[in-house]
Phosphate-specific transport system accessory protein PhoU (Marinobacter oulmenensis), 240 residues
Amino acid sequence: MDDKKDEVYGDHISHKFNDELMELKAEFLTMGGMVESQVENAIQALVDGDGHLAEQIRLNDKKVDRLEVSLDEEATLIIARRQPTARDLRLVISVIKMVADLERIGDEAKKIAKVAMTLAEEGHAPRGYVEVRHIGVHVQTMLHDALDAFARLDSTQALRIMKEDKRVDEEYQAAARALLTFMMEDTRNISRCMSVMWVLRALERVGDHACNIAENVIFMVEGEDVRHTSVEEAERVVTG
């Protein structure tokens, strides 16, 4: 692993280039931390019926959008000025892709916040919050671990995140079936339960984007694109 790290973040004749790459990495992790908080707060706002916190999440989404634009511009300038070779080009291109995933995770948090505001106004907690908490913790852990894998260039940890994505999909499907059953038993709950269904779907998408980040970490470290491949094929790349 250490040799592969050196290949990605090798020393350059230009110390300025080193500084630019490290700054790009640091700003990406800053954006990642902000998005992590957005997801956590969105779930909390929903469960607690906290409309004020939900509104704050919607306002903070603009900060996430600005960071996306800033990071894209910085990465593009690095490519234009430095014309990086393969090892560094993988880093810069991966950051551009992962920034897009972080922005979309922020969008999913904003969707949850909108639902939280609506349900807070109705003043009644529908079924499904237990499932929201459970899947929410799961995808938050995936996101945190994906960012950690990026920080440490740990393709083994990134592979574990890819494996977790299937479990999240299964949990989402089970929760959706439970809510559908509840709605069929009492049609008065359809509207509120449908809102929770949208939240569960948003959380499932957060897991998908965390998985995308993990796939890009593997590309950075191993030099092979594992998107649209099976987990078994990705495992051969990481352990091979």
